[in-house]
């Protein structure tokens, strides 16, 4: 057979290597590529033969990976990796096709599949190899995901910190300070609570210089509670998240 | 009841049916893959991107060849179908998962603990 033309020389990955396993044979579709080192890095999966040539696989192209200890299926315990891509083995696809027969390559709907097996001389390393691959795979979620609803503001959103200036968070506010930090929702809540309070003491109340129709109607006989007037337009600066 | 350590993943799960699959941890089920192979095994983990990790797997490839795999990780993209076992109460499973997420989110009381943004941003 011919040389594996997809093999290239490149330096081993230096960053984000979650696991590396020396003395690991790489096998493609049943044909051995030699013995080398498998590098399970966050950016890609790489294997380099001891001579310095090898190949890399990008995680988005990897459909699945598995630990196989079934010696009936394959005589050595190994890490199985199924890749959604074609790797040339030999240049032999010259045979003419019978009429009506479809070759996999020509059918757009059937995706190419390549099966790699990584056989470490140290079988006990398979668990660690498998786990490292799971971790790295999870770092590469599918960008073509049809469910585009996964579009979240992913960072932790701390409502309090967002609305306050940098600095210490006070444990309580004076009335004016507190009002200035209210969102529209907070303002509505405050109004409602004050309404309940007003109801219980039968008194009118002012809020930001506005007297509600309800309070005029219901509490006409009540005492007028003089609340410190608040500057109009107070809430314009409040950050409202609709 | 294990819940993801990632805020983003919890939010995604809470708003999609992946939350049901996450509740299947420990159950034996069959996963049909995009290339027509199938994997039957015990679910050990499902993340928010529907990547599924199975243990003690009976794998039938697209040619029909059966083999056993100790552990299998299949990417969400390559899953066509996950069979929900008959004994699973779907509604109860989803509710349990939601409770677990809320326990994490509101740990320490309503206004303490982690503050999270539980809704998708509007488009």
TrEMBL record, chain A:
Q: Where in the cell is it found?
A: Cytoplasm, Cytoskeleton; Cytoplasm, Cytosol; Nucleus
Q: Where are the transmembrane segments?
A: none
Q: Name one cellular component (GO) term.
A: cytoskeleton
Q: Disulfide bond: present as a keyword of the record?
A: no
Give yes or no: UniProt keyword Nucleus: yes
Main subcellular localisation: cytoplasm
Q: Which UniProt keywords apply?
A: Cytoplasm, Cytoskeleton, mRNA processing, mRNA splicing, Nucleus
Q: One GO biological process from the UniProt record?
A: spliceosomal snRNP assembly
Fetch the InterPro entries from UniProt. Answer: ICln (IPR003521), ICln/Lot5/Saf5 (IPR039924), PH-like_dom_sf (IPR011993)
Give the function comment from the record. Involved in both the assembly of spliceosomal snRNPs and the methylation of Sm proteins. Chaperone that regulates the assembly of spliceosomal U1, U2, U4 and U5 small nuclear ribonucleoproteins (snRNPs), the building blocks of the spliceosome, and thereby plays an important role in the splicing of cellular pre-mRNAs. Most spliceosomal snRNPs contain a common set of Sm proteins SNRPB, SNRPD1, SNRPD2, SNRPD3, SNRPE, SNRPF and SNRPG that assemble in a heptameric protein ring on the Sm site of the small nuclear RNA to form the core snRNP (Sm core).
Q: Which family does it belong to?
A: Belongs to the pICln (TC 1.A.47) family.
Note the PANTHER family from the entry: CHLORIDE CONDUCTANCE REGULATORY PROTEIN ICLN, METHYLOSOME SUBUNIT PICLN
Name of the featured protein: Methylosome subunit pICln
> Can you name the source organism?
Balaeniceps rex (Shoebill)
Automatic annotation (TrEMBL), chain B:
Q: Where is the Sm domain?
A: 16-88
Q: Which gene encodes it?
A: Lsm10
GO terms under biological process:
mRNA 3'-end processing by stem-loop binding and cleavage
Q: Offer a single GO CC term for the protein.
A: nuclear body
Q: What are the recorded GO MF terms, alphabetically?
A: histone pre-mRNA DCP binding; U7 snRNA binding
Annotated protein name in UniProt:
LSM10 protein
Q: Which Pfam family is one of this chain's hits?
A: LSM
Q: Give the matching InterPro entries.
A: LSM_dom_sf, Sm, Sm_dom_euk/arc, U7_snRNA_Sm-like
